[in-house]
Amino acid sequence: MSTKEFIKNQVEKFSSHITPEEFADLTEAENSLIILEVPSKDYTLTEIARIIESNNAHVMSLSVLPVSDGSTLLISIKLDISDLTPVLRSFERFNYNVIYYYMKEGEINDIQRERLQELLFYLNM
């Protein structure tokens, strides 16, 4: 299974033939999805769980797929929080490669929108 097929499969499982937004409305237990790409030699489930739980989130589901060459793993994680921003920042801080994420709501879009408005305001001066 290729990386693209794995991501597509995980997103389809997550949404189960409804949009991710509709799925998140149906359940309060699984509000977000993260897919990480991790070298096999660096994969430690306890470290990943520690990073997630240090941000007041809980792992609801986890799937691991070795990529064809065997040196890389794709890790799909469903979490019980609707805003992934702190978790994503923690993964960045610990040099994890987040290749896909979905969250019900979050600060990332709001912050980006604010910064764009500030830039446009500055350019109009």
Short summary of the structure?
The protein has 125 residues and is of the alpha+beta class.
Feature tags:
125 residues; Alpha-Beta Plaits; single chain; alpha+beta
State the order of secondary-structure elements, H for helix, E for strand.
Answer: HHEHEEHEH
Mean pLDDT, to the nearest integer, reads 79
Poorly predicted ranges (pLDDT <50, ≥5 residues)?
A: none
Structural class designation: alpha+beta
CATH class: Alpha Beta
Using only CA atoms, what is the Rg? 16 Å
**CATH architecture annotation name:** 2-Layer Sandwich
Looking at how many chains there are and whether they match, the oligomeric state comes to single chain
CATH H-level superfamily: ACT domain
Beta strand %: 15-25%
Overall geometry: globular
Describe the sheet with the most strands. 4 strands, antiparallel
> Can you count the helices?
5
CATH topology: Alpha-Beta Plaits
Query: Largest beta sheet: what is the strand line-up?
Result: 2-3-1-4
Total discrete domains: 1
**Total beta-strand segments:** 4
Alpha carbon gap, first and last residue:
52 Å
Give the topology, please:
Elements: H1 3-15, H2 20-26, E1 32-39, H3 45-53, E2 59-66, E3 72-79, H4 85-93, E4 97-103, H5 107-124
Antiparallel strand pairs: 1-3, 1-4, 2-3
Explain this structure:
The protein is α+β, with helices and mostly antiparallel strands and 125 residues long. The chain has a single domain, classed as Alpha-Beta Plaits (2-Layer Sandwich), CATH 3.30.70.260. The chain is 45% helix and 25% strand. It is built from five helices and four strands. Strands 2-3-1-4 form a four-stranded antiparallel beta sheet, sandwiched between helices. The longest helix is centred in the last third of the chain and has 18 residues, at 107-124. The termini are far apart. 18% of the residues are buried.
